[in-house]
Amino acid sequence: RNGATEPGPTLPAVVGDLGRGINNSIESPSSDWRFNRSLSNIIRKSILKFLDAEKDISVLKGNLKPGDTIHYIFDRESTMNVSETLYQLIPKVSPMKKQHYRQCAIVGNSGILLKSRCGAEIDSHDFVIRCNLAPVEEYRADVGRRTSLVTMNPSVVQRAFQDLASSHWRERFLERLSSLNGSVLWIPSFMAKGGEERVQWASELILRHGINVRTAFPSLRLLHAVRGYWLTNKVPIKRPTTGLLMYTLATRFCEEIHLYGFWPFSLGPNGLPVKYHYYDSLTYEYRAQSSPHSMPVEFRALKRLHSQGALKLHTGECN
Ligand code: CTP
Questions:
Q1: Would the CB of 248 count as within 6 Å of ligand 1?
Q2: Which pLDDT does position 251 carry in this prediction?
Q3: Model confidence over 150-196: pLDDT tens digits?
Q4: CA–CA dist 160, 109 (Å, integer)
Q5: How far apart are CA 144 and CA 117, in angstroms?
Q6: What is the spatial distance between Cα 298 and Cα 230, in angstroms, rounded to a whole number?
Q7: DSSP 8-state assignment for residue 92
Q8: CA of 62 to the centre of ligand 1 (A)
Q9: Ligand 1 pocket residue status of 225, Cβ below 6 Å
Q10: CA distances, 164 to each of 156, 167, 168, 188 (Å)
Q11: Which residue lies with its CA nearest to atom 21 of ligand 1?
Q12: Quick one: which of 164, 188, 205 has its CA closest to 70?
């Protein structure tokens, strides 16, 4: 397992203390940015000491059986059962097995994407990762529409689809899933309590309507392994965000990684307000103690990796 259960060594000096630095601006203008292939290879190897995305991206049929009881990763005292329906959607083989891509885009959900006109650029990547079933069609000029993998926290079923309470919302949900057209649907169903019913409803709909998606359910150890990697590299995150999880996983199967829609601040680089999400009016207190995440801390680490050429953060308009 690539020594995946052992905590690995810290990153080499070239990466340095990823948690350092407080300025949010992206220093290197696009034209100055150069991909640092050797650093990116070092990071891939270093992450492999903690987790192997090819395996940890999903539990497999062989690991679980219907009726198994699972303790939620973040709410250890609460449990859920693996239903027959959920089991049917667990893959036999990792959806990322032997997959390698030259350029990947990871699309976060910040309002910084609005008016960016980055849609075509995002879609031009070989593999496009999106988060939490964020809508694309009506925003496609800015965010693109191509989707190779999309995540879905169970809470999305409630937040964006009203818990499928009426035929209208079930239709909307089905339409969104159908539009995925064979891509990977990554559902972190074992992380926090409260999602069991939502995962069950979604799974039933997918099966009943023969929706063409490749479902994946992250392994129980993934979150701790990802957190372990960043903490070992002195990035004091709490619970990794979906965006950071996706970057950490993507290092395994992507050469060059480009991030769009990562901007966990209420003001943009130009000092104007930026929405938390490009597609709704939710507000978020980025630095709240009660938040399970530490988005600005994560951002600083990503920004540092950007300035070293290990990844590219896009926060401006596209040409
Ligand atoms: N993100 C960001 N800045 C924002 C909003 C989101 O950098 N203003 C990034 C974060 O990495 C986040 C990802 O985009 O995980 C997807 O956004 P969202 O769906 O809003 O994630 P959340 O629901 O806030 O958080 P979670 O990570 O728990 O899914």
A1: no
A2: 98
A3: 999 999 999 999 999 999 999 999 999 999 999 999 999 998 888 99
A4: 14
A5: 9
A6: 9
A7: S
A8: 32
A9: no
A10: 11, 7, 8, 19
A11: 242
A12: 188
The tokens 């689809």 sit on which residue?
A: 161
Separation of alpha carbons 276 and 272, rounded Å: 13
Whether ligand 1 lies within 6 angstroms of the CB of 264 is answered as: yes
CA of 309 to the centre of ligand 1 (A): 23
108 Cβ closer than 6 Å to some ligand 1 atom: yes
The protein residue with its alpha carbon nearest to ligand 1, atom 2, reads 262
The whole model's pTM is what? 0.93
Q: Whose CA is nearest to atom 18 of ligand 1?
A: 109
Non-local CB neighbours of 124 within 8 Å, separated by 6+ positions: none
Q: Which residues contact 268 (CB under 8 A, 6 or more apart)?
A: 112, 274
57 CA distance to ligand 1 middle (Å): 19
Give the sheet arrangement for strand 127-130, strand by strand.
214-216, 184-186, 149-151, 127-130, 101-107, 254-260, 312-314
The predicted model gives 54-58 an average pLDDT of: 96
Q: Is the separation of the CB atoms in 247 and 229 below 8 Å?
A: no
- Whole-number Å distance, alpha carbon 109 to ligand 1 midpoint, is 6
130 lines ligand 1 (CB under 6 A): no
pLDDT at 141 over 70: yes
Between the CA of residue 84 and those of 72, 80, 112, 186, 200, what are the distances in Å? 18, 13, 41, 18, 10
Q: Rounded to an integer, what distance in angstroms lies between the CA atom of residue 81 and that of residue 217?
A: 14
Active site residue 293: yes
Contacts of 100 (CB under 8 A, 6+ apart): 253, 254, 255
Q: Which of 125, 293, 306, 314 is catalytic?
A: 293
